[in-house]
Design brief:
The strands form nine sheets. The chain has a six-stranded mixed beta sheet with strand order 4-3-2-1-5-6, with helices on both faces. It has a four-stranded mixed beta sheet with strand order 8-10-11-12. The protein has 18 helices and 28 strands. The protein has 592 residues and is of the alpha+beta class. Helix content is 34%, strand content 21%. It is globular and about 65 Å long.
Length: 592
């Protein structure tokens, strides 16, 4: 079926079941950002492949609500699908609920699949629509009967990481979790989010592209820990290791029935943003439910000493791969054809040469000239441009290593750069340096670092539409909560041990885009009469293109930081490069 035919078929089922509006979120039963193929429902229904978007379908309108990162992509992919792009004003906000409230009559019925909808979203819809006399149904799956040859659940192997990598055993992590449950007077905790499960049970897999996680659920009580998983994915020695840590294994499909049988439990903790409505709905009414962020989300955000040391070493591996890549690119462009789409493959090859490399941490963004203005651009055989020795190239990429996760963006000059491009680039660099060198009191929130980073751009009446930074996992998801550096008033203090990106940008649609990104580690700085202060240690090791820098827009402190950073990059990477590569990097990192 075409996407228009699929839309017509969905509307046909809606009419049969007397549904006035049907919502399809980009999600799965674990409320994941990146999805197994089986749950790419938005892409199947509409053709839109971005990682964030929600479809809302009525009898006479079908829309995709998504944010500014995907406006251009959505416009192209929705052409001829029957769906219209609706631009979100606030990233991730369920603004389609407001639209439904304004456009549906009293006694209308709004439905969604509870397997794909978080508890928080289900509650938001109910709170918005039910007072208006609109019925909300959370148990309606219209896609399964229409989606022929729907992909099965992934069956790739999973494995348990050794303590030498994780720095903490599953047994100790379970003890910390139970202590937190006890403080909250909770005697059971249900976990759906895959990165939380991976951290807690020290387990990794490849069920989701770019994220080393395995599908599962967890149910923790004071005396028992159950991991619901496809047991065929695990080797016998991994099963034994989990059992010795006090973990029982049960079938993945049995999680819902296990919840229904928890009649002896009086209270249960769930994360409403990371638990699907269908699992929540299975919990007996007799159980008191505490809705708050999973404690493991806070635990894993603060890296232990072993994880930090591994991450520092991983940055050397990644920096070596990037140095080889950019050297090859500079020496090859203009001499032989290089397409955007081939850059990701070449960079993957350089990373694959490094020890402990597992795969990409997200799909590489290799964006030349006008494509750089699309923050989440991904080259396709149709869109892929051929590089020439002029203009700007933006490369946003990352690697998954058994010893850490990386995420880095660099913009390089391929030649014939204009003064306005230098100005924009230097202001973005200045912002990145301001954020990276911030010293701040304990208790500072991410939105405050976001403002510090944006100010050099604001001073010149420039801005960018995405957040300044996101948490990064340890050999886990490249986007990790609970903290973020963005404009939202997220009430999560920055803590020593958190790893976060700092990635200001500037985008001129139809012309070029600039983003410079490093990962930083929050560290204790100094105790003063005004309390404890924190600062950042820059982790990423890769040269920043100084050909694009306008020194007149930088203060001495910015120049000193850049020169010192480049000295560190060369010192850390040079021992792992051959003489020719060393000489090339020395030129790229020389003081300005």
């Amino acid at each position: 079926m075409t996407h228009e035919e699929k839309l017509a078929a969905i509307r046909g089922l809606m009419k049969q079941q007397r549904i006035d509006a049907y919502i399809i979120p980009s999600s799965d039963p674990h409320i994941s950002e990146y999805l197994p193929d089986r749950y790419k429902c938005v892409a199947w229904a509409s053709g839109f492949t971005g990682s964030a978007g929600t479809l809302a379908i009525t009898e006479d309108f079908a829309g995709l609500w998504t944010d500014s990162r995907y406006f251009v992509q959505a416009t192209e992919q929705l052409d001829g699908s029957g769906y219209a792009l609706v631009k979100l004003q606030v990233q991730h906000a369920p603004e389609y609920a407001d639209w439904l409230a304004e456009n549906l009559p009293e006694n209308a019925v709004v439905a969604f699949d509870g397997e794909l909808t978080s508890v928080a979203l289900a509650n938001a819809l109910a709170n918005k629509l039910r007072p208006l006399g609109i019925e909300v149904r959370g148990t309606v799956d219209l896609l399964t009967q229409l989606w022929h040859n729907r992909p099965i659940l992934p069956t790739a192997p999973a494995y348990v990481l050794e303590e030498a990598i994780t720095g903490e055993t599953t047994g100790l992590k379970l003890r910390r979790l139970r202590d937190e449950m006890k403080r909250n007077r909770i005697n059971a905790h249900f976990i759906s989010s895959l990165d939380d499960l991976a951290w807690l049970f020290n387990i990794r897999g490849s069920d989701v592209a770019c994220n080393p996680v395995v599908l599962g659920f967890g149910l923790i009580t004071a005396t028992k820990a159950t991991l619901f998983i496809d047991r065929q994915k695990l080797q016998r020695e991994d099963v034994v290791q989990l059992n010795e840590a006090g973990v029982d294994l049960a079938d993945y499909a049995d999680a819902e029935s296990a919840l229904k049988q928890q009649n002896g439990v009086s209270s249960m903790l769930i994360d409403p943003k990371r638990t699907c409505f269908a699992r929540y709905d299975a919990i007996p009414d007799s159980i008191s439910i505490l809705e708050q962020t999973n404690p493991t989300t806070y635990f894993k955000a603060v890296k232990n000493r072993v994880e930090i040391d591994h991450t520092r070493n991983t940055m050397v591996k990644d920096g070596v791969a990037l140095t080889k890549f950019f050297k090859w690119l500079e020496e090859t462009v203009g001499k032989e054809p290089i397409a955007e789409i081939s850059l990701a493959e070449r960079l993957f090859q350089f990373r694959a040469e490094q020890a402990d490399f597992v795969g990409e941490s997200f799909d590489t963004i290799a964006a030349y000239k006008v494509h750089g203005a699309l923050p989440h651009y991904k080259a396709t055989p149709v869109s892929s441009s051929t590089l020439q020795p002029d203009g700007l190239l933006l490369v946003d990429s990352g690697g998954q290593y058994r010893t850490g996760t990386t995420d880095i963006t660099r913009v390089i000059s391929l030649g014939q750069i204009t003064d306005p491009q230098r100005t924009d680039y230097t202001l973005v660099l200045r912002g990145m340096i301001e954020g990276s060198t911030a010293i701040f009191p304990k208790g500072t929130r991410g939105y405050q670092v976001d403002a510090i980073t944006r100010k050099p751009l604001w001073d010149h009446l420039r801005n960018y539409g995405h957040g300044t930074g996101h948490g990064v996992g340890f050999f886990l998801n490249v986007h990790e909560g609970p903290h973020v550096f963005n404009t939202a008033a997220v009430d999560i203090p920055i803590a020593s041990g958190m790893i976060t990106s700092i990635e200001p940008g500037l985008y001129r649609e139809g012309n070029y885009g600039i983003r410079i990104e490093n990962l930083v580690l929050a560290v204790d700085n100094e105790q003063t009469a005004f309390g404890p202060f924190l600062s950042f240690e820059t982790l990423t090791l890769c040269y920043i293109d100084t050909d694009l820098v306008d020194k007149t827009l930088l203060d001495t402190k910015h120049i000193d930081w850049l020169n010192q950073y480049h000295a560190t990059v060369y010192q850390r990477l040079a021992p792992h490069l051959n003489k020719e590569e060393q000489n090339w990097l020395a030129e790229k990192t020389k003081a300005i």
